[in-house]
Structures are given as structure tokens and as C-alpha cells.
Amino acid sequence: MAQRHRVVIVGGGFGGINAAKALAKANVDVTIVDRTNHHLFQPLLYQVAAGILPEGLIAPAIRSVVGDQRNCQVALAEVQDIDVENRVVIAREPDTGELRLPYDTLVLAAGATHSYFGNEEKFAQYAPGMKTIEDARYLRDGILAKYEMAELETDPAEKKRWLTFAIIGAGPTGVELAGQIAELAHVVLPRDYRHIDTTSTRILLLEGAPAVLPPFDEKLQKWTHDKLTKMGVEIRTNTLAVDMDRSSITVKGPDGSEEIIPCRTRIWAAGVQGSPLARVLAGKLGIDVDRAGRIPVGPDCSVNGRSDIYAVGDIMTLDKLPGVAQVAMQQGKYVGKLVTGRLAGQPAPPPFKYFDKGSMATIGYKAAVAESFGMKMTGVIGFLAWGFIHIMYLVGWGNRFGALYSWLRAMVFSKNRGHRIITFDGAENVAHRGVGGPISKQRLGDNVPVPDAPTELSGMRVSTPDDAS
Ligand SMILES: Cc1cc2nc3c(=O)[nH]c(=O)nc-3n(C[C@H](O)[C@H](O)[C@H](O)COP(=O)(O)OP(=O)(O)OC[C@H]3O[C@@H](n4cnc5c(N)ncnc54)[C@H](O)[C@@H]3O)c2cc1C
């Protein structure tokens, strides 16, 4: 029997899943290869970091998303190379074995990763970003553990340091995180701690541009600025992070002067670059990636004019399209349909055209901004629009109802966060600011003072093992 046309899709995110679905009726064998087993809804990652949503609700298994699609299989492996001559995707299996996936058509949909604008060495270890479920869990540890440290701390200056959070980048992600930390500090946590006033939390939102939410309408920027300020967020625009270490961040203000701010938590929400696979493929084809490490594609999303390689979503660059979910979804669908049509002998479709449905960002409970089809919404209206859109784009009714229930519980009924889970290991890890897996004090080579005398808290004595003997 003749071999069916093989489509390999690298990445089961917004672009990859939509490409696969658009190939459901085609006479092809589709393989989605992803280094995670889940299709991640990144726009709600910050809610995992804030303990509002459990991760499963925003990360259904890719297998279950395409479970009914008989021509589609899924492989858990990390793609490392692409042999464009022999048309083979080369990936590493979790047990380190090599997986070779031959293709007739390749769809590259591997998304983006953080960009520290050339400061990777210095910043990545101290200012984690948020792109994956692991990142969100790590940030949740990073945020909640600081309150635990502050509760145990006896030195007022150190207490303050534990309770200072700096968010670098005031795009939608930075704004959403700042709003969530403010709600934790002012609404959720005050009743739970005995030795700290959580409302004294200092939240700095740093932005290099002159306003928060740079791509948004000026009116919405101002609304967001005022709302965050009322929530206790200290916004500094025209300000850059120029240095950081374990316990401080150095910022350069609009007048060029530098200030060292003591703080234990920095969160990177400032920049992204295309997945390293863009460079791998570009190198193979002898073309250049753009400044943000993205591979250029033609009007039909093909790479270098080839009819066997396409790139969609955050990994590609075309007509200055923004790195948003809608672009990835629409391009994924477009390429899936294009391949289906071509194999059915139909004429090539017109060039890809992006249909902009608008943008939105939440600031907190009953507070969001949205612009769509010329309409500008703020406050409760914006919040309802935001909630409706996000619920509808989650995959599966179970997840939609689950998210709705979690929101009502977290924001309306209990004013609590149902998923405030941290462990000693998690707290220890973030306390020493290592990134990526538990890091011991020895591995960090850090002079972390380990008190050998019991720590005195006002009205409470913490016993050491010696006390028990
Ligand atoms: C915190 C955050 C908030 C956001 N909020 C919004 C928002 O409100 N609205 C909006 O429109 N957009 C938002 N975005 C952007 C949006 O999520 C992206 O534009 C979209 O996910 C891009 O889709 P994609 O398919 O290109 O990549 P992704 O959805 O990132 O999918 C890429 C997939 O490729 C896999 N992968 C990567 N490298 C490899 C490899 N080497 N081997 C195998 N698999 C690999 C990854 O595991 C992932 O599953 C947000 C992004 C983030 C990070």
C-alpha cells in the first residue's frame, strides 16, 4: 500500500493544534511532536502563578484534544534538529533515545521563549519569566514563599526585602501579575499571617516605554495606570532594569540615574524571542532570523518559498504580526487547509490574512481593559468581556466550567485562592533564587545563613531539633 502523505507538526500549542485539526479530513498521517504532553493556554498562566486556577484546567493533554482525530498521533519528544534534505525531524525522547520522524510536509509551531535582551547570563537566574506550566508553578512558589519567609524574619529591613516584588515589563502579562500580587497582598493574605502586614507589600512595575500596556489605546493605558496605582502598585515608566542579584534590582530612571532597590523577587515579563528551532531551520536553509529570533515566512506561511515547510505562530515573522494566540490559531488553520486543498488538487488559497479580533488585559477583580472592533471597554464591562472570551477559548466544557467555578470561588465567594500550594523544597529553591529544579544551598555555593540558634518571633518561639532533646 502506498505511503500516505506525512505531516509532522512541531508544537502542540495554539498554532500546532489548529493546523492538526484543519487536517482532520485530509488523506494524511499527522504527527504532533511536543516536549510537553499538554496544550497550554498561556493567557491564563498568571492565574496558576497566583493560585487561582489549578494547572490542569489550562493544560489539557494534547492526546485528549486530538483524541477523536483518527489520522493524528502524538509524540512526547524534544525536537533538536531538522534534516531538510532527507525531510526528517530529529527529536530526543524522554529516555534520551533518538526519535526520527520522516515528513512530507513540516509545520513548525514551536512558539517562543524568554528574551533577556542579551542579559541572559545575568538576569535569567534572578528574574524568571512565565511561558510554561513549570514557570507558573515556580512563580507561585516564588510569590507565596516570600510571605512565609517574611513571617519568619525578625529583621525589619529583611522583612521588607522579602515583601518587595519587582515586575519587569508592563505589557498584559506584567500588568496581570502586578494586579494579582496586589490582590493577594490586600484581599487574600492579610487574615492569614500573624507577624507581617501583607498590605505593606511593595509591588514595583517597571516599564521601558512611556506607558503601561504599550500597544493599547491611550485611554486604556491611563485607566490601567490609575487602577493599578489605587491597588498599591508602584509604576515606573521610562525605567529599565540594568542589574540584579539575589537580593536587589538596579533600575535606571528617565533622568538616567540608577537606584538599587532591595527586593527578593523579580519577575521577567519584558520580552520574548522565537524558539531556538527557528535558528536551527534558518541555518539549514541558509536564511536569517529577525532580531527577535523568528523565522521569516512568505504570504502563504511557507519558509523560504518551499512547499514542504511552513511556520506558524510566535516562531515566525510576517508583516509585523503580533505574537498573540489569534495569529497562531489563524495561521495554523490556514496551513492545515492549504495542505488539505493541495493534496485534493485544489488551487492555492489567497495569501494569509490576519483577522484582528482585539486585545484585552485584566488588572484584577471586576477590572479589565479590552479593545475590540473599535470598542473600548474598562472596569466591570471589560472584566466580563475578558472572562467570557477566555472561558470560550479554553479547550473542553469540563475545563470551562472548572475555570468558572474556580473564579467564582476565588474572586466572589471566598476571596481566597484555592491553589496556594508550596512545599519546603519549593520554598527553599526560590528563597535562594535558583531557576529550574530544586537547587541546594551547596549547589548554589551561596553563603546562606542557617541559624543555629532558635529564631525568636514576637509571641512565638520556633524550636530547633536541639530543643526536643
Ligand atoms: C504569560 C502569557 C500570556 C499571554 N497572554 C496572551 C493573551 O492574553 N492573548 C493572546 O492572544 N496571546 C497571549 N499570549 C501569547 C500567546 O500565548 C502566544 O502568541 C501563542 O501561544 C503562540 O502560539 P504558538 O502555537 O506559536 O506557540 P505555543 O502556544 O507557545 O506552542 C508552542 C509549543 O511548542 C512546543 N515546543 C517548543 N519547543 C519545542 C521543541 N524543541 N520540541 C518539541 N516541542 C516544542 C511547546 O512545548 C509548546 O507546546 C500570552 C503568552 C504568555 C507567555
TrEMBL record:
<keyword id="KW-0472">Membrane</keyword>
<keyword id="KW-0560">Oxidoreductase</keyword>
<feature type="region of interest" description="Disordered">
    <location>
        <begin position="435"/>
        <end position="469"/>
    </location>
</feature>
<dbReference type="InterPro" id="IPR023753">
    <property type="entry name" value="FAD/NAD-binding_dom"/>
</dbReference>
<keyword id="KW-1133">Transmembrane helix</keyword>
<comment type="similarity">
    <text>Belongs to the NADH dehydrogenase family.</text>
</comment>
<protein>
    <recommendedName>
        <fullName>NADH:ubiquinone reductase (non-electrogenic)</fullName>
        <ecNumber>1.6.5.9</ecNumber>
    </recommendedName>
</protein>
<feature type="transmembrane region" description="Helical">
    <location>
        <begin position="383"/>
        <end position="408"/>
    </location>
</feature>
<dbReference type="InterPro" id="IPR045024">
    <property type="entry name" value="NDH-2"/>
</dbReference>
<keyword id="KW-0274">FAD</keyword>
<keyword id="KW-0520">NAD</keyword>
<dbReference type="GO" id="GO:0016491">
    <property type="term" value="F:oxidoreductase activity"/>
</dbReference>
<keyword id="KW-0285">Flavoprotein</keyword>
<keyword id="KW-0812">Transmembrane</keyword>
<feature type="domain" description="FAD/NAD(P)-binding">
    <location>
        <begin position="6"/>
        <end position="332"/>
    </location>
</feature>
<dbReference type="Pfam" id="PF07992">
    <property type="entry name" value="Pyr_redox_2"/>
</dbReference>
<dbReference type="InterPro" id="IPR036188">
    <property type="entry name" value="FAD/NAD-bd_sf"/>
</dbReference>
